[in-house]
C-alpha cells in the first residue's frame, strides 16, 4: 500500500521519489491488503494499516441475529469453508439477489455463533496462491472487531496518524425486501454503540441510492459515496442506469445526497490512459471521485501495464495508479495491496 502524504507517498525506486502525489489523495485498502492476505480478515486489515492505508474498506453483510460482519458477498461459500461443513448442508439455498439467481449459503441464514465456526479461505486462489497458505486460520470479523482493531493500531502509533473506515452496505435493498432487515438502521446502531460520529474519518458507500439518501436525511454529517459501475444500474432503481448517473445531469442529482462518486477505473480512464470527463464533471457538481480498483496482478491490468504472460504475475499496477492521479486527478484510490515498484520507468513525468 503506497501512502500519499508529504512525499512519503511517492512511488519509490531504490529510495528515489519518482512521482509526487497530491497530499489529499486517499489510499483505501480494498477489503484490506487483499492481494497479500485473504480478504476481509483482521489480518488483511492490519497489514493494510501497517502499509500506510488511510482507510480500510469492509464490505458489510448481516447475520440472522442482526450482527454486521465483513464479507465480499452475503453468499459464503466463495470465501469460507461452509461448503465442507456437513452440519450446514441443509442451509444451502437458491436466492434471487438483485435480479440474479445465486446458489449457496448466506450470511443472513446463520447466527454469529454459527458463523464463528467457519474459517475463511482465499476467494481467487488461482491468481493469489500465496494467500491460500492462510486458508483456515481466520474467522469472519464483525464490524465492532474491525473498529477495535483500528483503535488498537492507532494507539500504537501514538497519535501520529489516524486510520479511517470506509464500509460498503452490500445488497441493502435485497435484505430489506427479502428478510425485512434494514442495514441502514444496523449500521447507525453499531456506530452509536462504537462511538463513531461524523467527526471520525468515515465514508459510507453503496451501489444503491435509497440507503445513501436515508443516511443523508438521518445522519447528515457522514460522508457518503455513490458507487457506479461501467454497466447496469442501482438495484433499488431498476429503470436507472449508471451511464445516466455519470452524466453532468446525473452527477448533479448525486450531489444532492452524496459527497463523492466511487467509480470503476474504466469510467475515469480511456483505454489509452487519457482521462474521460468524469472527474471534471464531478468536480463541477461538487463531488470528489474515488477510483476502484487498482490490483497488482496482470489479470486485472490492461496489456500495456502487464509484465510477462502469467495472469497471476505482478504487473505495473503502480503505473496505473500514477496515470489515475496525474491525468485524471482523482482524490482517492482503492487498491488491493502494496503496489509494485518494478515499472517506475513507465510512469508519466510530472
Automatic annotation (TrEMBL):
Keywords: Glycerol metabolism, Hydrolase, Signal. The keyword Hydrolase applies. Residues 25-324 form the GP-PDE domain. GO terms for biological process: glycerol metabolic process; lipid metabolic process. It catalyses: a sn-glycero-3-phosphodiester + H2O = an alcohol + sn-glycerol 3-phosphate + H(+). Residues 1-20 form the signal peptide. It is an enzyme of class 3 (hydrolase). InterPro entries: GP_PDE_dom (IPR030395), PLC-like_Pdiesterase_TIM-brl (IPR017946). One of its GO terms (molecular function) is glycerophosphodiester phosphodiesterase activity. Its EC number is 3.1.4.46. The keyword Hydrolase applies. GO terms for cellular component: periplasmic space. Belongs to the glycerophosphoryl diester phosphodiesterase family. This is glycerophosphodiester phosphodiesterase.
